[in-house]
Amino acid sequence: MTASRKSIIFGVYAPELESNDERILSVASGPGHAPAGLRLAWSVSHEGRFIPSPQREAWLREEAVHARDAGAGHLVTLIGWERPAALSPGGRAQFEVHAKWPLGAVDSAAAEELLERVAEGVRAYWGHATPNDMVAGMEPRVPPPGRSMPERSEDTRSPGIPWHLGWLNYWSAAAARSLGFPDPSRDADLLSRARRTATGGWLVRLTEMPLDLGNPTHIDALLRGYKRFPRMGGAPIDRTFNGAS
């Protein structure tokens, strides 16, 4: 995959929506501040056509979040949906928000701010922003013969436990406690790239630059992360990554 085709995949996972839930509007307002100039101005029809949305807030109150925005010449997509209880961790329905933008269109600081704004706005359990090729690379692999299959996301014990590590990680205060983070004796490196949020959660940048499958240092950081947080995904499992030595 060429660098020009790489993108950042963004996802946050929150409690299910309630009637007239104001969190939908917080999703729309969050990207309006980070990065500067980003605005939600389009919706997408079922046929895939772009539709201007001048009455954005009224439209959002009636529809699930599903908008596209062109900022500084870059196309950014934002979509939200409800995951049913039967397919959610712990059997509890969730509200998910996902976004995608070209790698390099949003700098690291703005991506971190965007993750924080949206995650805290929807009261998310956890979230991440990660290059698209790394998202696939982080999925648990089929274990060798004689080893049990890893638990699927819907089988995890608690919705508050992140499913996987990302490049930028948002962990609510409850999620961080579940992971045992921070532990000053073990997390000095992560803490050097982490900060608290207004609600007591954490933003943790796993590596300075976006995760890269071709960078052995990044693969090592992921493997160290999973070793540090064996409950990631709901159960201790083995993970391998393409490009890992």
Q: What features would you describe in this structure?
A:
With 245 residues, the chain is an alpha+beta fold. It has helices at 23-29, 56-62, 108-121, 132-137, 173-179, 188-191, 216-228, and strands at residues 7-15, 42-44, 50-52, 66-71, 74-83, 94-102, 126-131, 168-171, 194-196, 202-205. The protein has a ten-stranded antiparallel β-sheet with strand order 3-2-4-5-6-1-7-8-10-9. Strand 4 and strand 5 (74-83) form a beta hairpin. It is globular. It starts with 6 loop residues before the first strand and ends in a 17-residue tail after the last helix.
Strand order of the largest sheet: 3-2-4-5-6-1-7-8-10-9
Largest sheet descriptor: 10 strands, antiparallel
Q: How big is the Rg?
A: 18 Å
Q: Identify the overall geometry.
A: globular
The count of helical stretches stands at 7
Kindly name the structural category: alpha+beta
Helix-residue proportion: 10-25%
> Multimeric state of these chains?
single chain
Q: Return the domain count.
A: 1
